[in-house]
Amino acid sequence: MINDKMTKALNVQMNKEFYNSRLYLSMATFFHDINMDGAASWMEKQAEEETEHAMKLYNYLKDRGARILLTEVPAPPTSWASPLAAFEDAYKHECDVTKEIDDLVELARSLKDNATLNFLQWFVDEQVEEEASTDAVVQKLKMASQGGHCALFFMDRMLGER
Ligand code: FEO
Known about the structure:
Elements: H1 4-33, H2 37-63, H3 83-110, H4 114-145, H5 148-159
Helix pairs in contact: 1-2, 1-3, 2-5, 3-4, 4-5
The structure holds MU-OXO-diiron.
């Protein structure tokens, strides 16, 4: 039987992952609006992944016989100062998510909940990839910004290949 405190914390994270999905979908609409369809496609795929993260938590709670509670998901921001600003925001956001996952790991450890500890390991590994992939785009966009519109055009094409 899963601990009430752990159940509550996993429910909170599940709802945050649904927010993450909406955040990236909002970034996708921003990129469509400025005709960067490659970056928009990158963000749409990221949004899909975030829904998968939420559903992983949903299914884990279900498997443990815990009560699942869907709460209100706040509206995400809708515009950014530049393509770079959007991806910088994405990178910073992923660093925050890593901290959230680390806090869940600490809670599971303090409760001696080995099943949840084991389950959370997937998210620990995923966050390494999430931070790396968003930061890689930030670094490339910084380089592209020195090359003008042409560099940004090719960068957008590359992002569309994700
Ligand atoms: Fe589910 Fe990108 O954190």
